[in-house]
Design brief:
Layout (H helix, E strand, L loop, with lengths): L3 E7 L5 H10 L4 E5 L13 H6 L1 H20 L14 H26 L2 E4 L1 E6 L2 E5 L5 E11 L3 E3 L12 E2 L13 E5 L3 H12 L3 E6 L10 H14 L2 E4 L2 E8 L2 E8 L2 E7 L1 E4 L3 E3 L32 E3 L10 H15 L13 E3 L4 E6 L2 H6 L4 E7 L4 H5 L6 E7 L5 E8 L2 H13 L4 H5 L10 H9 L15
Parallel strand pairs: 1-2, 1-6, 2-3, 6-17, 8-15, 9-10, 9-15, 10-11
Antiparallel strand pairs: 4-5, 5-6, 7-16, 12-13, 13-14, 18-19, 19-22, 20-21, 21-22
Subcellular location: Cytoplasm
Family: Belongs to the class-I pyridine nucleotide-disulfide oxidoreductase family.
Catalytic activity: N(6)-[(R)-dihydrolipoyl]-L-lysyl-[protein] + NAD(+) = N(6)-[(R)-lipoyl]-L-lysyl-[protein] + NADH + H(+)
Length: 480
């Protein structure tokens, strides 16, 4: 029997590595098991999907492609003569890879600094307090732990009509590795990942068609914000086709023919590349050995309570492999909560105040209820909105598209949700998260002094608009 630990974490993604570091900071002897092989050194790297092939690399490409579009089309309005601007795709990719390498290496450094033991290999829970790790050479070692945290993450969903074909039909990981700009790009799925990746390659010159099986666009976002977002993305060149259910695909040479049905019947489109972004599924197969009574549901998610305890008292599970939104920051907060609980502290997490962001341009961000959600729950609401077109800072930034919207309880004035489409929406949504965490009223935000000129003033004005008191736009309600 190998070393015994207070805590063993399986998975070093944003849930696992945070849980391991927090546990070590609290004085617990902690190990973290990871099997992800980096593409350069061919050795284990930390950070999981988020750092290696998800959040971070996609944002590097989104930022680079946005700056390219700005230089090519928008600088002239500001008096900047940039000439003939071109994009070196290979250099853009190399920068992305460098950022990933720096961050994954940084986690390894944090493990050392905090005393976390990094164990390379594939982890499996073989008992209530046992983890078997199979290393890269196939050797299995069993470790004991008083507590186990499963943070195995998720993987892209594949669908039968579009089997992966290297270089032609790819998932979100493959879409981060294109070496050139495809002329015709198909994207299956108009969710967060599909819209972000579609935006990257559209900005660089691809004709992008997004096929979405659902009839509604971004149903998790407030209706008014979703409608405006769809309009803005269409204006940028994304051809978003709703109610388009893919039925098959065929690779013909270096092209992909996609068949789908919509309201008009059978349709067919030909692409140079096809990205499949229809969601993700929990990576739990083989993580728990047969005979260990950790319960999974029919979709493969590990069943946990509100504090991420599984059906086995000493085993916890967090992140994408349990219920709730598949978001890196949700996983991280769960990791902190679980580490605190294991250390004997009282800890909980507010699942009603988890923000979401789509990093297109403009960004889309939201937290809490939509207006439609509130009405479905029978809650009478009042709302306030403010367009960035009326913001001085937005004009100065050449970023006047979008709006901020606040949903408040009509009786109590308590903030129920905030939804923003606009530049830096992902940064501004933190105000909504804080409002929900502290049970703020819309009046609390309206009485707050915001710096001028800032994009955040749109949130202030939206809060004022809840009672018809917005200063910088015509009010629909009379002052009381």
């Amino acid at each position: 029997m190998a070393d015994k630990f207070d805590v063993i974490v399986i998975g070093a993604g944003p849930g696992g590595y945070v849980a391991a570091i927090r546990a070590a900071q609290l004085g617990l002897k902690t190990a973290c098991v990871e099997k992800w092989i980096g593409k350069e050194e061919k050795k284990v790297v930390h950070g999981g999907t988020c750092l290696n092939v998800g959040c971070i690399p996609s944002k590097a490409l989104l930022e680079a492609s946005h700056k390219f579009v700005e230089a090519k089309h928008d600088f002239d309005d500001m008096g900047i003569q940039a000439g003939d601007v071109t994009m070196d795709v290979k250099k853009m990719m190399a920068r992305k890879d460098k950022i990933v390498k720096n961050l994954t290496g940084g986690i390894s450094g944090l493990f050392k600094a905090n005393g976390v033991t990094a164990i390379d290999g594939t982890g499996k829970v073989t008992g209530a307090k046992q983890v078997e790790v199979t290393d890269l050479d196939g050797k299995a070692t069993t470790y004991e732990a008083d507590n186990i945290v499963i943070a195995a993450g998720s993987v892209p969903v594949e669908i039968p009509p579009t089997p992966m074909t290297e270089g032609l039909i790819v998932d979100s990981t493959g879409a981060l590795e294109f070496e050139d700009v495809p002329k015709r790009l198909g994207v299956i799925g108009a969710g967060v990942i599909g819209l972000e990746l579609g935006s990257v390659w559209s900005r660089l010159g691809s004709d992008v068609t997004v096929l979405e099986a659902m009839d509604s666009f971004l149903p998790m976002v407030d209706g008014a914000i979703a409608k405006e977002t769809q309009k803005l993305l269409k204006k940028q060149g994304l051809d978003i086709q709703l109610g388009a259910r893919v039925t098959g695909s065929e690779v013909k040479g270096k092209e992909v023919v996609v068949k789908y049905t919509d309201a008009k019947g059978e349709q067919e489109l030909t692409f140079d590349r096809l990205i499949v972004c229809v969601g993700r599924k929990p990576y739990t197969k083989g993580v728990v050995a047969d005979g260990v009574s950790v319960e999974l549901d029919e979709r493969g998610f590990i069943h946990v309570d509100d504090q991420c305890r599984t059906s086995v008292p000493s085993v916890f599970a967090i992140g994408d492999c349990v219920r709730g939104p598949m978001l890196a920051h949700k996983a991280s907060e769960e990791g902190i909560m679980v580490a605190d609980i294991i250390a004997g502290h009282k800890a909980e997490m507010n699942y009603d105040a988890i923000p979401s962001v789509i990093y297109t341009f403009p960004e889309v961000a939201w937290v809490g209820l939509t207006e439609e959600d509130a009405k479905a729950k029978g809650i009478e609401v009042k709302t306030g909105s403010f367009p960035f077109a009326a913001s001085g800072r937005a004009m100065a930034n050449n970023a006047t598209e979008g709006q901020a919207k606040i949903i408040a309880d009509a009786e109590t004035d308590r903030v129920l949700g905030m939804h923003i489409v606009g530049q830096h929406a992902g940064e501004m949504i933190a105000q909504g998260v804080i409002a929900l965490e502290f049970g703020s009223s819309a009046e609390d935000l309206a009485l707050t002094c915001y710096a001028h000129p800032t994009m955040s003033e749109a949130v202030h004005e939206a809060a004022l608009a809840v009672e018809g008191h917005a200063i910088h736009m015509a009010n629909r309600k009379k002052r009381k």
